[in-house]
Structure formats: structure tokens, C-alpha cells
Design a protein that fits this description.
InterPro entries: DUF2496_YbaM-rel (IPR019630). The protein is mainly alpha-helical. The protein has two helices and no strands. The radius of gyration is 16 Å and the shape is flat.
Length: 57
């Protein structure tokens, strides 16, 4: 399967996997770091949604 037509999240996932594997980072370290990234981006998304719902003055 070619990545050309793959969704952006699949392309990003493949790039991240290749980067992490090339640096031989332990699996648990990767999972811990990805959880931090997930929480950070979830907060960014939540804040962006809150900001878009706040009425302008």
C-alpha cells in the first residue's frame, strides 16, 4: 500500500514510528512520551474549541 493516498494521520504515524525506531528508543519511553503528547494536544483542542465558543465583546 502506498502512503501517497493515505490519510495525514497515517503518514504522520509512519514517520513517527520510523523516527522512534531509528533512534532505538525503548518502547515504554515511547508510550510514556506519546501519552504526554496526547494530553497536550487534547488540551490544545479543548482550549481551541472553548475559544471558538466564547462570544466576542
Amino acid at each position: 500500500m502506498s502512503l501517497e493516498n493515505a490519510p495525514d494521520e497515517v503518514k504522520l504515524a509512519v514517520d513517527l514510528i520510523m523516527l522512534l525506531e531509528s533512534h532505538q528508543i525503548p518502547a515504554q519511553t515511547v508510550l510514556d512520551a506519546l501519552e504526554i503528547v496526547r494530553r497536550d494536544y487534547a488540551n490544545k483542542l479543548k482550549n481551541a474549541e472553548s475559544a471558538s465558543q466564547t462570544p466576542e465583546k
